[in-house]
Amino acid sequence: MNVNLLRASFDALRPNIQPLVDRFYSLLFERYPQVRPMFARTNMATQKQMLISALTLLVANLEKPEVLQGVLQPMGAKHAGFGVRDEHYDAVGLCLLDAMADTAGPLWTDDLTREWSATYGAVAGIMKEGAAKAAAVA
């Protein structure tokens, strides 16, 4: 994981974080309309702010797996309660990377795609672990 590259790219995206998040949800609902009902009772402004906070927390703790695990596993358990399944993580990852690339424009590179894809894969894996642990307890 190239922490410096991830942080630099996030810093470059930060001034446009709201358009990035707006683009992400637009892509998600356009490409995967079956997930829209999961957000039926959601205040989207709050949801978007939570995504911004999660991305910020992720980037701030890239070198602290114990912190990320402590946040992401419960988040995965919570998402499972909303009906999120493993295949939804793939949809979210694809839309998030595309929204990042769209927002970054010519600053986006193949290296960034690889780094963010791997990082998102690790995040999704930890969240799935949390969901599986919650299911085993239930």
Q: Care to describe what's here?
A:
The structure is a single chain. By secondary structure, the protein is mainly α. Helix content is 78%, strand content 0%. The model has no long low-confidence stretch (mean pLDDT 95).
Principal-axes shape call? globular
User: What is the number of strand segments?
Assistant: 0
Rg for CA atoms: 15 Å
The number of helices is 6
Major sheet characteristics: none
Question: How many structural domains?
Answer: 1
Helix and strand run: HHHHHH
Structural class by secondary-structure content: mainly alpha
| pLDDT averaged residue by residue | 95
What fraction strand? under 5%
Helix content: over 70%
CATH topology: Globin-like
Return the CATH architecture.
Answer: Orthogonal Bundle
Low-confidence stretches: none
End-to-end C-alpha gap: 35 Å
Q: What is the highest CATH level, the class?
A: Mainly Alpha
CATH superfamily: Globins
